[in-house]
Amino acid sequence: MSNTLLRPGADAIAVKGWWSAHQWLILRRITQAGILGLFLAGPLLGVWIIKGNIASSLTLDILPLSDPYLLLQSLFAGHWPETTVVIGAFIVAGFYFLVGGRVYCGWICPVNPITDMAAWFRQRLNIKGGARFPRQSRYWLLAMTLITASISGSLLWEMVNPVTMIYRGLIFGMGMAWFLVLALFLFDLFLGQRGWCSHLCPMGAFYSLLAFYSPLRVSATQREKCNDCMECYAVCPEPQVIPPALKGAEQGVGPVITGINCSNCGRCIDVCSKNVFQFSTRFKSVNNFSTVTKREAMP
Amino acid sequence: MAKTGNEVDQYRRRFLIRSAGQACGAALLGIGLLTLARQTYGLPAEAIRPPGALAETDFLAACVRCGLCVRDCPYNTLKLSELGDKVTTGTPYFIARDIPCEMCDDIPCVVACPTGALDKKLTDIDDARMGLAALVDQENCLNFLGLRCDICYRVCPAIDKAITLDTIHNPRTGKHTLFIPVVHSEACTGCGKCEHACILPEAAIKVLPARLAKGAPGQHYRLGWEEKQKAGSSLVAPDKEHKYNLPEGYRYEYEGQGLIKENDSGETPFSSNPLDTLNQGRQQ
Ligand code: SF4
Ligand code: SF4
Ligand code: SF4
Ligand code: SF4
Fold it and tell me: Other C-beta atoms within 10 Å of A293: how many?
């Protein structure tokens, strides 16, 4: 078993073919690159579809989109904002409320490809060990960023926040932010299995809080077909969200993954040779199990 | 599976200890960040915020570092600070000596700002106060040397209001005038056109944050002559009438007019022949 887990997905590739075993991953990378591309089209090609960066942007000179976490920091720092940024933040928050908060992580955030790559190498090279951070640490860090914003009266976290820093850097000039990219990669490679995104990042923690009621969810619709190959656990950045849905049949727990830290990345769908998982909605009851929206005790 | 009371206690204990550990970790990081911030905050003097920027501390609470102001500046004046620059990472600024602010009438940077970090209340660019120009090098400024450079004065968008040329005697030649550029804080926007245009290899006139460019009078200071004018008369003691031995029909005005001849009929008490006055003294 340990051998297949060094290369999770091998079964799925054999059964479904390479494309089917990677389709969500590829779609995600296309989305990430495409949105970054839209931002870059302005400065590089002079095609101004989106101006700004993920902190706050203006699309087609009309649609404001702003990051609700940054707005929250700004409020904690004591600034009463203009309506534009408030509208933008509500639109964005509303979107993630519907599709799942951490869709931000899986589909937009520039750090995700870096930490995914680190996780991939860690798996292939069978690197073990490093520090073990509890998954709740991120919520403490989230609280810390807001409290320090309030104490310092500034967006303090934005001085170091790798997410906004890297995205802004790609569009406006990296400066020394390449070191940050490298640091994050090495951190996740050697210091902790999915150390940053799944344990520490306060931005991810913030977005997870938008996911309590989001309709769009992955569901282990055909969970009775599971052959316990464990490959979904091996690829999932937040594997603690899987068991309640996958193994909850006896306890009467529905097959929908309701854990707020699931980023709807769809890797479990890709990697499962038995086609257990599929995108679904929170409300869909399958196989006569009523959908249970009970949250996990721990996020 | 029901847990016994003891197990619950154990669980609770572990949970509390773990949470305390995480909280302390986060707090330590927070303290580190706050210390770091203390050391890196404070804008270098040559970095100027865009027009309408709130006071620096408020600005850092408001700006989300989106760069929309940068994008809408038609002159590429503004840039976002990169990691490693001296300016707080991600915030907009400009260096006047590189590209000054052209003081656009419609102030697109302010219009673009979604957060109010650039204050929407700024609608007239002449009211912007990005900094204050100061002629810092009086040794090398060509006008101070008695030449007629005048460039900073000529390029100033608020010419004759923000910069004037004040004339004083040139003591070196003894017969020429120095045209001294004088900046007036009530009109200077801090756009930096003067600093940009200064022809010296290192500008003699520079836009600085107002706190560096300007002194401040003591709060209790009163300028006697102004107070007197406001009150209409001297505030300390009634003005004594000064008694000079003036010839009859003359009085002296202290506000600057000097010797005044009453009912000036063109006559003088003196003879047109100065010898008469001298002879008069001998006779007495
Ligand atoms: S956890 Fe943070 S860094 Fe990771 S993908 Fe989410 S927002 Fe990005
Ligand atoms: S006023 Fe015009 S030139 Fe000056 S910073 Fe704003 S947009 Fe740029
Ligand atoms: S537009 Fe406003 S919020 Fe955005 S970078 Fe400029 S000053 Fe900051
Ligand atoms: S900075 Fe210089 S050019 Fe601009 S308004 Fe002030 S004196 Fe004039």
Answer: 13
